[in-house]
Amino acid sequence: MAAQVEIEDQASVTKLDNGEIFDSALSDDADSSSLSRSRSGSGSIFSSSSLILLDEGNAEHDVIKACLLSGMGFVSSDTTIVTIRKNTSDGITNRAKFVSFRIFTEAVARKRVGGDANVKYGWYAGSKEEIESIVSYGFSNQDVGKFEGDPCSHGVGIHLVPSKCSLLAASATEPDEEGLRHLLLCRLILGKPELTTSGSKQSYPSSPEFDSGVDDLRNPRNYVIWSCNMNSHILPSYIVSFRSPRLTVSRGGFAARPSSPWKRKIRRDQLVRKMREVAGDNLLAEIIKNHRDRNKVKN
Question: What span is annotated as the signal peptide, if there is one (predicted)?
Fold first, then answer.
C-alpha cells in the first residue's frame, strides 16, 4: 500500500520523537479551531497569498517550535520564535503542487520494498527573498548553484538538514534588515538514499535503485535532493522566522552563501555592534589590544 501524504490543510505535524517531526492528520475541528486565517498581505514580511499565520497553541505551531528549539543546542535559550507560517494548497497552482507531491510520493512508494516513500521533514536555509521566491515559484538552478564548489557539499542539488538538526540549518541563515532569520521547513521524498561523499559532483541518482543522497546512511545530517527532482520531491510547508542573537553564520557541514544585498552593505558602527554581540566586549577588547601590541612590535 502506498504511503499516504495528506494534501489538505488538515495534514499536520503533531508528533515529536527525539527531535524528529512525524506526520499525523488532525481532525477538521481541531485544525480549524486553532489556525489563524490571517494571510500574508500588506505589512507582512512575506507576501505570498498561500501562507497562513499559525497561532501559539496551535498543534502544528507548537510542535515545530519545540522541534526547532530542541535542536538549537547552546543557543536555544537565546532563540525566540517570532512567527510560523504554513504554506497551504489554496489557489490552482499551489493545489497542483500539493497533488503532484502526493503523486510522486505514491510513485516512489510503489517501487520501494514495503511501499514506504520515506517522507521526512527537512530544514532549508536561505534569505527572506530566496525563501519567498521558493514558496511562490519553486526551487531554481540558482538555489542549486549556491552549493557548487563548496568542499562540504555532498552533491549537486538542494541541500537540507533533518528536522532534529535545526542548529545546522540555522547557522547558515542570514539576519534580514529587521534582525530576523528565516528557515523553510519542507516535506521531502527521500525514497532510498545513497551515500554521497563530501565534495561530490554527483548531480543525479547513480542508478534507478536510489532516489536521493545523504552524508551518512545511519544518522544523516545532510539530505540531498537532486536537481532533477527538486520541484517534485520537495514540498515547502512552513516558514519559521526567529531571532537568535548568539548565532553566527557557519559553513561547516551545511553551507549557504550570502544572497541578501543588505548583508553586503554594512556600516562600521553596525559591524562593531555585531562583533560585540558575537564575541562579547571583553573578548573583543582583548583582540584589539593584541592587534595593537603586534603593530607596536612591527614598528
Answer: none
- Which residue, 33, 28, 34, is CA-closest to 9? 28
3 state DSSP class of 195: strand
Average pLDDT, 10 consecutive residues per value, the chain (299 residues) = 34 56 43 46 65 94 96 93 94 93 96 92 94 93 70 82 94 91 97 91 90 94 94 96 84 43 47 56 62 61
Q: Which of 123, 162, 220, 143 is nearest to 17 (CA)?
A: 162
In sequence order, which residues have a C-beta less than 8 Å from that of residue 146 and are 6 or more positions away?
255, 256, 257, 259
pLDDT of residue 61: 96
Nearest to 199 by CA among 215, 221, 216: 215
Q: How many CB atoms lie within 10 A of CB 216?
A: 12
Q: What sign does the CA torsion over 279, 249, 162, 58 have?
A: positive
Residue 52: enclosing H or E segment and its boundaries? strand 51-54
DSSP label of 212: E
Q: Give the Cα-Cα-Cα angle 226, 231, 235 (nearest 5 degrees).
A: 110
